[in-house]
Amino acid sequence: MKQVALITGASRGIGRAIALELAERMPVLLVYATRHREAEDAVKEITDKGGDALAFPCDISDFEQVKQLGRKIREQKMWVHTLINNAGILRDQMFSLLKEEDWKDVINVNLNGTFHCCKVFLQSMIARKSGVIVNISSVAAVIGQVGQANYCASKGGIIALTRSLAREVAPSGIRVNCVAPGYVESEMYQAAVNNPQISQLVQTTIQHFCPLRRAGKASEVAKVVSFLASPAASYLVGQTLNVDGGLSM
Is residue 152 within 8 Å of residue 106, measured between CB atoms? Predict the structure, then answer.
């Protein structure tokens, strides 16, 4: 069985950067919801450099689809040693105007999707007493953010899930950690900048509360994820690393 890394939300932004980084040392599986062309472009970029990559469509908020993805991977004689739960969405709105469906959509993708992937892909890790999970949260879960009650709740849940799961599976040789990015140049960041309800807040926060006075780059987050997924982080368990330019200090 071929040992692989699986990255959700890998067609763009931080997920794509993580896939490119990990592909330098292991085969990678890029999981995407709808952006087929972007995912295939990322696969081509990896394979053109001599890497090994495949793309799979999957809505991680649907447990049955994640189970089916797990079966497809096993049928192709692969097992997921490194799981990067990166997929996430925004539905920003002031709490007084927040619709129930926007609350549920964000929780279903960001938090439930992470749960679904852990449930499915932990099985092979436990059987082999080896594996790594890196969950992608957000510094918003640590400091809070106006207009993002749903997003902050989902990302805070991911940090709590990381700690609890890490305690459970560490005795089986599996490390679970978390990365909480701050503002990172991506489509999601641009959506926040373009949202008139929170745009000014985002810009003010970066200029006055982020010591580096800039948004991060996806590659900067990817390198931290790569470290956590590597043997160099063999004694790190249940930790959340804030990659935020000092915003959360």
Answer: no
